[in-house]
Amino acid sequence: MSDFAKTKKLFHMPDGVIYLDGNSLGPLPLAARARVVDMMAAEWGNQLIKGWNSAGWMLQPRRIGDRIARLIGAAEGTVVMGDTLSIKVHQALASALELNPERRVVLSDNGNFPSDLYIAQGLLKSLDKGYTLKVVEPEAVEAAIDESVAVMMLTEVDYRTGRLHDMKALTEKAHAAGALTVWDLAHSAGAIPVDLAGAKADFAVGCTYKYLNGGPGAPAFIYVAPEHQDAARPALSGWLGHEAPFAFDLDYRPGAGIDRMRVGTPPIIALAALDAALDAWNGIDMADIRRASIGLTDLFIAEIEKRCPELSLNSPRDGARRGSQVSFRHREGYAIMQALIARGLIGDFRAPDSIRFGFTPLYIGEAEVRAAVGIIEDVVNNRLWDAPDYRKKALVT
Fold this sequence. Notes:
Layout: H1 4-8, E1 18-19, H2 30-47, H3 51-54, H4 60-71, E2 79-81, H5 85-99, E3 105-109, H6 114-127, E4 132-136, H7 141-144, E5 149-155, H8 167-176, E6 180-184, H9 196-199, E7 203-206, E8 221-224, H10 268-277, H11 286-307, E9 312-313, E10 325-329, H12 333-342, E11 345-346, E12 348-350, E13 354-358, H13 366-381
Parallel strand pairs: 1-11, 3-4, 3-5, 5-6, 6-7
Antiparallel strand pairs: 2-8, 7-8, 9-10, 10-13, 12-13
Helix pairs in contact: 2-10, 5-6, 11-13
InterPro entries: Kynureninase, PyrdxlP-dep_Trfase, PyrdxlP-dep_Trfase_major, PyrdxlP-dep_Trfase_small
Family: Belongs to the kynureninase family.
GO cellular component, one term: cytoplasm
């Protein structure tokens, strides 16, 4: 049984704060702070450039990738770290398209994170081969899978509503139609059980600064199914994806297996923080995470609907059909969220009208949920959000 009372002590939380925004940025793991200080002093400081060998820096993308693989149902040697999620989306989609060269449709939905759609639009335009990006309603994805689709590219958990796609069923349908799949796990990894191998996913990508608590700008990961690893050509042919980076050949030869998906120099300080953050997952069962998450989100929904009639649920009511986040709609959602933050309850706002809350059992329990509902009830029912300062838009919402 996972011990969430123990994991809660592993994170720094400012006094007077209820943090329901780990679906945007996880809080600071205490071990990460200590690990980065030690890495900078003992490794970078004392070993200097020798650290690439003596401290194992060059091996970190694979080693940490294997740690994340356990959390997403992937085998060792199928996940590697590096670069940003945007780059990994580009890599995965470009490689998948080359593996299915006779088709010209990329299928996605309008619940996908907009950045993924931007990347697809840019890539397809640059390829200039008559590709079409077909974007449908989330509920229409299954019916839209046909023999014209080259790649189905979806975010498993809708960033705005928390709606959860059935990865296994949709992947089976895509494969039956001859399509490949790219899954974005930005709101899945560390939030819900994921079984990439069991679902037979072709490619997957994800970030590590949300539920995995790697810190702002923490590096992303990419998964490539074993059967594709030696056939997938990396469109971004970076020097660390080369078969022999330090041979300094002028021509690119892709490395073996997942290593070919490496691109640039790994961010060693950020990887040190992430490596320490992943220690919080030692001994944690994702099934326990899921049970606790559904319990917390169900409680939150029931209490908000009972006490705040002005708010309209914008997430699936059935816990089995949503990730570990809940959003409610209100025409003054932005101002409401600013008023909540001013009172120590941190969530976030997503246009046009959703206030969004993430629930992470590693550090959030029933007491925090009930306290959060009390603050929301006060702010909404007493119109405490109705002040000019709460309507001033910040750069990040």
